[in-house]
Design goal:
- This is PH domain-containing protein.
- It comes from Canis lupus familiaris (Dog).
- This protein is an alpha+beta fold.
- It has a single domain, classed as PH-domain like.
- The protein has four helices and seven strands.
- Strands 4-3-2-1-7-6-5 form a seven-stranded antiparallel β-sheet.
- The radius of gyration is 17 Å and the shape is globular.
- The N terminus is likely disordered.
Length: about 150
């Protein structure tokens, strides 16, 4: 079982690495795409990115014409919340599963777009339960559901 999970992790990493080397519009079947502004905590400025959400990973591009991603966030374990920050009305907070990781703040052009992104982010993260959680969920099923 452990070998299987390691193989899955490597396959997933290979896919996301491959996707990050593609132009934004070459990523097939994105779950969400569009402009988002990311708060740069060091300068307290908002930086615009063209973003693609796919399989629990948010790819960040300088523009829609970029040839590859300038960065990406693996969102497994992150919680998505709507927050209010002083400089913006409504922002998307991506809170990590542990304090050792960074919290990210994004905002779209308006509240409707923010809601679209929040829904897509939550659904994308939920699809990719950690393997240990999936195993636990399977083990907690009644015996008759787990028979082959």
């Amino acid at each position: 079982m452990l070998k299987y999970s390691i193989a899955l992790t490597h396959v997933w990493e290979d896919v996301t690495l491959h996707n990050s080397s593609l132009p934004p519009l070459a990523i097939k079947n994105p779950e969400c795409l569009g402009l988002l502004h990311q708060l740069d905590r060091s300068t307290d400025m908002w930086v615009q990115h063209y973003c693609i959400l796919k399989d629990g990973c948010l790819y960040l591009y300088a523009s829609i014409r970029s040839t590859q991603a300038s960065g990406g966030l693996y969102l497994q374990g992150y919680r998505v919340n709507e927050q209010t920050l002083s400089s913006k009305q409504s922002v998307i907070e991506l809170k990590p599963p542990s304090e050792e990781f960074k919290t990210f703040y994004f905002c779209a052009e308006n509240k409707t777009e923010n809601q679209r992104w929040i829904t897509a982010l939550k659904m994308s993260i939920k699809k990719w339960l950690p393997l240990h959680q999936a195993i636990q969920d399977f083990m907690n099923r009644p015996l008759e559901e787990t028979r082959m």
